[in-house]
Amino acid sequence: MIKNKKDTSTKKSKIQVIDLHKSFGKNHVLRGINFEIEEGESLVVLGGSGSGKSVLLKCVIGLLTPDKGQILIDGKDVLKMNTRQRDEVRHKFGMLFQGAALFDSLTVWRNIGFELLYNQKLPAEKVQRIVRQKLKAVGLGDRVMELSPAELSGGMQKRVGLARAIASNPEIIFFDEPTTGLDPIMCGVIDKLIVQSLRDLNACGITITHDIATARFVADKIAMLKEGKLVWTGKSSDLKKTKNSIVKEFINGHVHKTDNSSIKASKASKKALEVATKRREQTK
Amino acid sequence: MMILSFLNTVGASTIEFFRYVGDLSLFTFRSVSCCFRPPFYLRQLFVQMYRIGYLSLPVVGLTAIFTGMVLALQSYTGFSRFSAESAIATVVVLSITRELGPVLAGLMVAGRVGASMAAELGTMRVTEQIDALSTLATDPYKYLVAPRIVAAVICLPLLVLCADAIGVLGGYIVSIHKLGFNSAIYIEQTFQYLEADDVISGLQKAAIFGFMIALMGCHQGYRSRGGAQGVGRATTNAVVSSSIAILVLNYLLTSVLFSK
Lengths: 284, 260
Ligand SMILES: Nc1ncnc2c1ncn2[C@@H]1O[C@H](COP(=O)(O)OP(=O)(O)OP(=O)(O)O)[C@@H](O)[C@H]1O
Ligand SMILES: [Mg+2]
Prior knowledge:
The complex is a heterodimer. Helix content of chain A is 44%, strand content 23%. Chain A is an alpha/beta fold. In chain A, helix 6 crosses helix 7 and helix 7 (154-166) packs parallel to helix 8. Chain B folds into two domains: 1-33; 43-256, no CATH class. In chain B, helix 3 packs parallel to helix 6 and helix 4 runs parallel beside helix 8. Chain B is globular and about 65 Å long. The mean pLDDT of chain B is 93. At the A-B interface, strand 6 and helix 5 of A face helix 5 of B. The complex binds adenosine-5'-triphosphate and magnesium ion (MG). The site of adenosine-5'-triphosphate has 12 residues of chain A, from strand 2 and helix 2.
């Protein structure tokens, strides 16, 4: 609140999470999470597999009920709301699930237009027009409209999931591992799509990823989840400079194994290629 | 040591049982209240009515016709011993409308529809499709559970009505062509002692069985976890628990409500 008074430069707090706890039986997954996201801001949550990233998102969006803590959306505590108020808040959210979670009893266009079709009761032609737009935005053609989700590849399913998440113009969008299991080119495409859709809708977002490249590209702010707490939070540009050992380990683990080595490898292969072509020319 | 571990097991399964009952009650309450509160998903309702009602018709009809036929044969064997053949038509029609129609149709539908509901909702649960529904501001109880329950409650009585007719027809065919009854007399005897209440009580039972089938199927599916194995378990549990519920409720309803 005090912060808001200081810089009245239109930025308002959209999501605020205070001391969030969640456990499953003896498995204490979240142990006091605190963060804040302003309007139009993009947060990336990094963390190892099983560290509770998906659980965190599901708590914020209301699929899981936390044991303790507060979740403020536009300054109002979601956990104290009645069902109707909570439904209203739900309309502000869009989410891309880790496994896309498309409805396999419906065609692709009904999936994407689900909320428009069944909740806002728009006529089918209008929905189809919007769906075409959204499909175009995620780089898919009209061809897939009438297919069933089972007929799509994994990457296409992710993109349809993305289109569904943004179809009703949400104010808050969550992306749970949008690029896991995709080829590097598709990763790049999805990264761009995320940034673009957040910008187009002027929405704020939380993206979960293991992938440092995605994190750098998408994030305004980055947080590192470990053992149920956010052990480090900072700007995207601070990520390299940080002295925090946990973050360094996470990044360097990645950089050494993928980025650096692949750069080295590509340099080496370039040289090899040059040598090979020279030889070939000589033999001619 | 053995006693301790025995007590441990008994205690654990008792707790498990009460947890199940409590959870089922909550689920029932929420589902039923969602059947009466908008928004209503009519498209879903019609799809479910088609699947539960229309697609179950062959199975139910087949069961009914053979039951009616065998009923006529068996009662002939018994009744001819004290020359009471004229009672056969009445026995067939009363057994079918009051008892066998609802119970057999219920059990067949439990196997067919209850299992598929549990499998479908279970798969939707483990692939996070049910979570996705919530994030699209749609109440899964209203979109998934309520249409299934309403459709089953509407369709089962209709199915049983068909089963009654087909079952009586089965008895007629056997009596006329195999046992040598006179057609006009058999038909007259069929309706002579039949009262509207006999049919209606059967249809009431059917509506309750339909409710149980859909409820058990949806509950097991909705609560399933643990991947494909969990879905398999949910399917089995749905069929077993709704079949048992049908048999137990059938006795209770007959002895309390319809024993006039
Ligand atoms: N519904 C649930 N019931 C019981 N335990 C759960 C449930 N959901 C998650 N967990 C547990 O919570 C922990 C965190 O799970 P979560 O799915 O959030 O991991 P994650 O950080 O998203 O991992 P990944 O990167 O592999 O997706 C895990 O130990 C998991 O076993
Ligand atoms: Mg996850």
